[in-house]
Amino acid sequence: MAHSSSKQPKPAGPKSKTIGLLAQFDDPESLVAACERARDAGYQKFDAYSPFPVHGIDPAMGISRTRLPFFVLAIGLTGCLVALAMQYYMNAVDWTKIFPGYAFFISGKPLEISPANIPVTFEVIILSSAFATFFGMWLFNRLPQFANPLHRINRFRRATNDRFFLMVETADAKFDANRTRQQFEEWGATAIENVDLDLTDQEIPKFFKMAGIVGMFLLLVPPVMTFRAYGSTNRAPRLHVVPDMDWQDKYKAQQTSPNIGTDKEPVFLYADDRAMRAPVAGTVARGDLQEDDRYFRGYEPGTLPPPVKPVAAESSPANFVSTGGPNAQDPAPAVQDPATAGQYPGEPKWIDTVPAPFTVSEAAIARGKQRFEIYCSVCHGYDGNGNGLVNRRALALAATGQAQWTTAKSIHDPTVKVQPIGRIFDTISNGRNSMGPYRSQIPVEDRWAIALYVKALQETGIQPPAGAAVPPAAPQQ
Amino acid sequence: MATVDLTSLDNTIEDGKHRAPLVLGGMNYSDVTDAVAGVWEKKQPAIWWPIFGLSVSLTLLFGALIMHLFFKGVGVWGNNNPTYWAFDIVNFVFWVGIGHAGTLISAILFLFRQHWRTSINRAAEAMTIFAVICAATFPGIHIGRIWVFYWLFPVPTEHLAMWPNFRSPLLWDVFAVGTYATTSLLFWYMGMVPDLATFRDRSKSKIGQFVYGLLSLGWTGSARNWHRYEMAYTILAALATPLVLSVHTVVSFDFAVSQLPGWHTTIFPPYFVAGAIFSGFAMVVTLLVPVRKLYGLENLITIRHLENMNKIIMATGLMVGTAYTIELFIAAYSGVASEQFAFYNRAFGNYWWAYFIMFSCNVFIPQLFWIKWCRTTPWFMVIVSIFVNIGMWFERFVIIMALCRDFIPGSWFYYRPTWVDLSMLLGSFGLFFTLFLLFCRYLPVIAMSEVKNVIPHADHGHGEEHAAHSAASH
């Protein structure tokens, strides 16, 4: 090989170099004795080889105690800190932007480090220490080392079976080929042999280099693909790993029933083709009876007049920015005389005090204020004067003819101020004119709280906007 | 040298003047190497193939059933309200427990300088690894949504924003069993490296030289290497000792930390650890008696080794017996009706038969080992150890079947395993034996370098002399 390539740095050199002298011994006691004498003879670079750890060989060779335990201790303590930090971060810290933890509140246990963190901390200490011991030991021993001239000596194969060896390196200052051999004979060696380093076979074959480079590139593929996929949105349909979990063999409410007959003569579970049964007429769901007219509807029981025409607001959802529906300019009763407040033709007698389960308190008004500002202020404004953001935007659109809009009513309008609280409650619940019903969004108690807050606002003395608001509002209430 | 009649040897006699020899037949270093490497070099005994074929078939059945479980869901098992935990956790605890004897032998007996461990530690550690593999399979496959199994681990994902709950014993289990499997594997492999080097140096085939050469990492047996190696071995033993105690403690926390009558008891950790060692030693005996017979290792794994293990089985059997009794007493003494009902139900309820099997196999049958003939006769101790294995499986079954009668009598339910449950239990044994048979076939079954350390140096006649002495006094 040395002659085959012109790039070879050593075109013609010795084929091998002696790096040490190996002596064989037949029992551990002779080995220990020889080691002691080698140490006393001043050798530094020598080593003994045996099929098992021989007792007493460490002092005989002058081997100093390994620092492995300190290395393990350091890694173990690091493992302890890492484990505690990991658990604290993952279960208590959720304010970081990248890789946030998740504050688990479970059974009222504290988020910070608690006795519940002991088992995992313990296991991580053991795991990191075990890794440190295992890998540290090989590292300190400079293993794995697959190419070792000793493995080329046939006799040395018995070092892992039943023979004991001592090798002195030629690099040792005291080494002298003849004298050392003579000493080995004196110490009772049963065989002596040179250890030769083969110099003809030092280069790594080119194939390995190429394979290594290709392998490195192939190893890069998975991380690159992961990185590409990371943070991107996949438009492909979801993968259904277990289809019968995603599409379960059952019928949900409001589905059509399966055809259990043939295509020509279909037979359904029920005559009406539904997979569910509708409740019996007059069924009231638990908690939905709502018998109390005062509390749930805001009027005195028994005062509801027979229906003359359907209530407009019930028929369609609200179109806040409408292109002009039939209800946009709904004819409404004329402005009420304050003297006859509470009397509205075609309407029941509205109550003018809050009904029984609801109690007036500062907390109730505060709640009403908060709900008002969520649900009502967008049109009616924070002060109730009808200058909410939606109202202003819609009026701007209406001015250029892009929408039709009925100005939101000021709650300080004289026609509104005189209304009993029951009617305000009804307006919130069912809407009026172009205002939509809010009974499905706001629970009964909150609606009373809002009505209460409206009444409170009306007492503040805020003046309704002059001029502009009144004429358009006139057709409404 | 090795001319002493094997049948007349008896190293089980206690003799105050001499230490009983740990290796019989006057074996020297190369005899030990030949005996152990012979297991690998010689043709396998004829019975190896049928057993291996059966084990591999059961392993394939196990794999097929796991697929069946994945595609059909956990409904193929018999688990149902209120018995949400059944065979999966019974098998998990059973197999993890089996593993504990290996670590006990390799680590705790090492720290206590019990030299008799050297002949059995390698096979016991291998058993640990294979048992932990079987154990880890069950919680791995029972999670229902198998495709998100990685939620068990603290994997950093920005999108998920989910982390394991570090206050849950089930998570502690993931860490404990994971650490246990890893550390046992490192310990086992590290202990095997010098012996793998022996195989490398003896191997005749190119493939053997390459594979064992790679596995033995270029080990030469240098005294400087041995020094660090022994230090590392001691450290690993010192780490594995608290670890093995912690693992079954954490496994018992799965039950003890819950607030269920019959489970919420402080006795569980020590009682589980004792039970684990008990079942593990029984499994070691079950495996090693046939191994020493088939491979002719009677001089290395001697009757004295087996007798020592049987003594441990008897001692730990008494410990679990004590625990069973104390449980009953505490339940009665507590005055808590639910607790009393749980234990009354355990002993006399609809699973009384399981409790009966558990108590007789674990507490009564090992008492036979008080008789010397019973603990020194190989075929007989195998029968006892199999009973112990059955009993320990039923111990876990009994504990978990407490779920069948929960707080609402209306939901009481008599759990019955399905054919899938039973076949998976059988399949896990197939996996275990497949791995163990491969281990016997390809790896050093006895730690040669450690055994060589405990046979008398220089004066090989000493062991023989003592053997003759023992034989004479017998």
Overall 3D shape of chain B: globular
Strand runs of chain B, count: 0
Main sheet strand line-up of chain A: 2-3-1-4
What is the element string of chain A, with H for helices and E for strands? EHEHHHEHEHHHHHHHHHHH
- Helical segment count of chain A: 16
Concise structural overview:
With 477 residues, chain A is mostly helical.
Descriptive notes:
The complex is a heterodimer of chains A (477) and B (474). Chain A is mainly α and 477 residues long. Chain A has helices at 28-40, 57-61, 68-92, 118-140, 177-186, 206-229, 243-246, 293-297, 312-315, 362-375, 377-380, 389-399, 414-417, 421-430, 444-458, 470-473; strands at 16-25, 46-49, 164-169, 191-198. In chain A, helix 3 (68-92) packs antiparallel against helix 4 (118-140). Chain A is elongated. The model of chain A is unreliable at 1-8, 311-336 and 468-477 (pLDDT under 50). Chain B is mainly α and 474 residues long. Helices cover 67% and strands 0% of the residues of chain B. In chain B, helix 5 (169-202) packs antiparallel against helix 7 (223-256) and helix 11 runs antiparallel to helix 13. Chain B is globular and about 70 Å long. Chain B starts with 28 loop residues before the first helix and ends with a helix. Mean pLDDT of chain B is 88; it is low at 1-8 and 458-474. Chains A and B meet through helix 1, strand 2, helix 2, helix 3 and helix 4 of A and helix 1, helix 5, helix 7 and helix 15 of B.
Secondary structure: elements and pairs:
The complex is a heterodimer of chains A (477) and B (474).
Chain A: E1 16-25, H1 28-40, E2 46-49, H2 57-61, H3 68-92, H4 118-140, E3 164-169, H5 177-186, E4 191-198, H6 206-229, H7 243-246, H8 293-297, H9 312-315, H10 362-375, H11 377-380, H12 389-399, H13 414-417, H14 421-430, H15 444-458, H16 470-473
Antiparallel strand pairs in A: 1-3, 1-4, 2-3
Chain B: H1 29-41, H2 48-72, H3 87-111, H4 121-141, H5 169-202, H6 206-215, H7 223-256, H8 268-294, H9 303-334, H10 337-348, H11 352-364, H12 372-376, H13 378-400, H14 419-442, H15 448-454, H16 461-473
Helix pairs in contact in B: 2-14, 3-4, 3-7, 3-8, 3-13, 4-5, 4-8, 4-14, 5-6, 5-7, 7-8, 8-9, 8-13, 9-10, 10-11, 11-13
